[in-house]
Amino acid sequence: MDDPRAQRLFGDRLVAPGDLAASPFRVDRDRIVASPFFARLAGVTQVISPGGAGLLVHNRMTHSLKVAQVARAIAERVDPGLADKLGGCDPDVVEAAALAHDLGHPPFGHLGERVLDRVARQRLKLLDGFEGNAQSYRIVTSTEIRGQATLGLNLTNAVRAAILKYPWTRRDPQRFMDPPPRGAAPPADDPEGGSPKFGAYSTEAGDMRAARAPFAGRVADWQQTVEASVMDTADDIAYAIHDLEDVHRVGVLQQGAVATELMAWQRWGTETDLNRAGGAIESLRRQLHRKDGWMADDEAFAAAVELVRAELVDGLLARPFDGSLEAEAQVAAFAATWTRRLVDSVETIADPAVRSGHVQLATAQWHEVQILKFVQNRFVLARPDLALHQRGQGRLVASLVEALMAWLVDPDEEERIPSRLRDLVELAEAELPEGTPERMDRARGRAVVDFVAGLTDNQAVGLMQALSGKSRQLWTDAFVL
């Protein structure tokens, strides 16, 4: 097929019975939203567990909806001439990819992702481990079973390629580039572990290559498509802004601590004692120069610190959130102002840096996003009380994997294995070539990881209680299975 626009479709699929839209990319969007995997995201943690803060905080579904909204706004601002040369930028493709990008995130957000990866590699001996982006791609391509086939959601090439923030597998050679793409460099404490961030497991590598084939010769083989770059930029914007709304609403972001750090840095930014007030943000400045020298700029960094101090510390945080209409209006105005500012700054780049994409924030706004993320990482995610809560969640995820593996290998329980878990074992076994060492053990391990990753926070807690003998809800526990 020589027409690049036609290649962006998937085979000859345009619409199918039951699809309501005429555009194949709108069909993709509808299929994603109608999927049970998308519905599950309403019960999955974004930053703060919904169970601990009621309905005021974002979950993975509301985050995905906001990413889709921002992504569509960015797509409409992309240089159309340059985008066409690079393979196209359709707002429907971008929106669909944004809605799908978090489908694979497990219970308890990034904590669950780290625990599942560790358990998958160390306990279950799965070389690919677990990665939320790769799990999302697995979901849309493999794990939704329709009849006798496992087509996933049968999405177009363009949308599948746009989901790929990191278009390589864990063992692909991108990690050896100098410099490597963002997310590809192995951590210093695990140089043989492969890329920590990647877009597809080895079982879906062929599908990933097929999805990106229409973009060959247009974007580098390690580079995001324009549509993926739009989605990634939108995700950055939403994370930097909307998660700050949550921590302000629940009162864990304190004005005094943030103000001290941001204001102290201005007084001694050239000193070297990183343990003093202002030292953490000075460490960030140095880190940006080390990792992102293509963009890092001291004047832009200083201006970003001042802007965030003025609008976040002296603005949003100046008055504790009390649930009043005025407080809600202030939060909404803060989010709208910052979103508009960041979206309006987006640029389309023909030849981006290795650690960037074809769509990126302007220099000033890129630094502002780094400061906003810093505030959350420093004053929320590093809190000991959050660590206490998350350590318990991490133990729960690891224990759940162990309990399900024990169930699968119990010869007395073979006839009572949950149907979905049995299906996932069969799917994983079929993916592994004949002669694979410990083939059945690996298939069971991948099936358990797929199963646990598909639970909501509350389902994970409820299932572990049942498997531990602590639940008395005999029949109502079955909804998890």
Q: Would you give an account of this structure?
A:
By secondary structure, the protein is an all-alpha fold. It folds into two domains: 4-224, Hypothetical protein af1432 (Orthogonal Bundle); 251-382, no CATH class. 55% of the residues lie in helices and 1% in strands. It is built from 20 helices and two strands. The chain has helices at residues 4-7, 24-34, 36-40, 60-75, 80-85, 91-100, 109-123, 132-143, 157-163, 205-212, 226-249, 255-268, 279-291, 298-313, 325-344, 363-381, 384-409, 419-431, 439-453, 457-467; strands at 347-348, 359-360. Strands 1-2 form a two-stranded antiparallel ribbon. The relative contact order is 0.12. The model is unreliable at 144-148 (pLDDT under 50).
